[in-house]
Amino acid sequence: MTRRFGIIVALLGVLGGVVIDWTLGVPPDPFRAPDPMAFGSTSGASGAICTFAPGAQQ
Amino acid sequence: MIRILLIVGLLSTLAVSAGVRFSLLLGLGLLIGFSLERMGFGFAGPWRRLIRDRNAQGMMAQLLAIGLTAIAIQPIIAYAPGSFLGAIAPVSITMVMAAFVFGLSMQMILGCGSGTLINAGSGNAIALVALPLFCLGSFVGTLLVPFAIESTPHIPVSLPALFGVQGSVGATVIGLIVIGLIAARYSQAPLWNRRLLTAAVILAGLAILHVLVAGQPWGVVYGLGLWVAKAAQGLGWDPATAAFWTHPINIAALESSILTDTTSLTSLGLVGGAALAAWKESSDRPFGQSVAIWFYLVAALFGLLLGISSRLAFGCNVGALFSGIASGSLHGWAWLLAGFVGSIVGVRLRDQLWSLAQTSRQS
After folding, report:
1. Rounded mean pLDDT of B67-91?
2. pLDDT: is B358 or B48 the higher one?
3. B268: contact with A, CB 8 A cutoff
4. What angle separates helix B93-108 from helix B44-53, to the nearest 10 degrees?
5. Are B314 and A49 in contact (CB under 8 A)?
6. Residue A45 dihedral angles phi and psi, to the nearest 5°
7. Torsion sign, CA atoms B242, B246, B247, B249
8. How would you class B236 by CB atoms within 10 Å of its CB: exposed for 0-12, middle for 13-18, buried for 19 or more?
9. Helix B125-151 and helix B93-108: axis angle, to 10°?
10. CA separation (Å) from B205 to A32, A47, B7, B282?
């Protein structure tokens, strides 16, 4: 077995996750999409970021 | 040519069905994954080479990438603080301990936050075992974060807020130069590697573009925890029982498609980009590693620890180390020191276990 098998497994995993989320969850709505870029726009960062620390002292 | 058409088709479909910003973010993830895999730029590997072989080439490239990004993104974030958000997080005892565990764990599986995704995308068996546990650990970590914040003081320190943007950029660059001088003094190999330096410039450019598009710096682990949280919700878990997931930002993320979540898109892109970069040579490389099967269990365990520790440390090598330092967050510097000490322990432990796993397989 070669690494190509591993790549296919990884891609199928990613694709499977997206399909399940799309099917069982709420599909994206392009009419509620933010501006293409945050720069120069009022629709900025989502705030969903790794450093998010709810409840920490500000 | 077929691969390029496929990507253009994929990005166009996402732009139409979700929005142009999300398509751009997936595209950036693909480019980052492709560049890092093709050019051999990473975080865990260079630290291992510095510690084990006294070779600082990869470390110097990392410092260059962080420095270039810092010079660009700190003024951008300060330009419109309502729209832009830096990767600023608290410093605490638990944060430092978690960064130590992350540094150790990433040496055990030779994959950091971005590295595990890229290794999985390139078909690495150990990364494919570790990645699902990494995601699970990221979710478990979100359940532990509120307890950590309640039990120990967590103090966010933003250098731009303390010293102003110019002072913060200056302090960041000086700090990176000091780390570079220490690494250079320790190194016994030539310091500069053209390929890695080129990769560093490319990565910095993509990280800056990420801020311009998303309004926030590049991250990895938030998305991984979100995927498991959504799966757990589908299996009956109630997010209202977890303090972390009752915050409006996280509720919104749970109620939306992962194709509209910033870190999910770039993480998916990392896997896809690495797969594209590694596809051609993948049929000549063996899938499995020449180690006993139990080493895969070790990889799974440390994958889980990667996830938990990255949440408690408020980011992995990307969200905390790269983006944290580039944003002027003191926690990025604390992460660097604690993660490096953890890596010193991890390099030694891995060498011992790897050798044992090879011997076990042969006997």
Report:
1. 95
2. B48
3. yes
4. 80
5. no
6. -70, 150
7. positive
8. exposed
9. 170
10. 29, 22, 21, 28
Residues listed for chain B: 363
| Residue A32 banded pLDDT, cuts 50, 70, 90 | very high
Residues of A in contact with B250 (CB under 8 A): 48, 52, 54
Percent of chain B surpassing pLDDT 70: 100
d(CA B120, CA B116): 6
User: How far, in Å, are A52, B45, B146 from residue B304 at the CA level?
Assistant: 20, 20, 19
The closest of B281, B283, B276 to B34, measured between CA atoms, is: B276
pLDDT-based confidence at residue A58 (cuts at 50, 70, 90): low
- Residue B158, strand partner residues: B329
Interface of A with B in 4-33 (CB under 8 A): 4-11, 14, 17-18, 21-22, 24-28, 30, 33
Q: Which helix (H) or strand (E) holds B67?
A: helix B57-79
Q: What are the backbone angles phi and psi of residue B158, rounded to the nearest 5°?
A: -100, 115
Per-residue pLDDT, averaged over B310-338, amounts to 98
B237-272 pLDDT, tens digit per residue, is 999 999 999 999 999 999 999 999 999 999 999 999
From A16's Cα to the closest Cα of chain B, the distance in A is: 12
Chain B (279-338) residues lying within 8 Å, Cβ to Cβ, of chain A: 279, 281-288, 310, 314-316, 318-320, 323-324, 329, 331
Token couple for B239: 């997010």
Residue with tokens 């180690």: B291
Helix axes B125-151, B113-121, angle to 10 degrees: 160
Question: SS3 of B99, please?
Answer: helix
The pLDDT of residue B225 = 97
What secondary structure letter does DSSP report for A34?
A: P
Q: CA-to-CA distance for B359 and B61, rounded, in angstroms?
A: 35
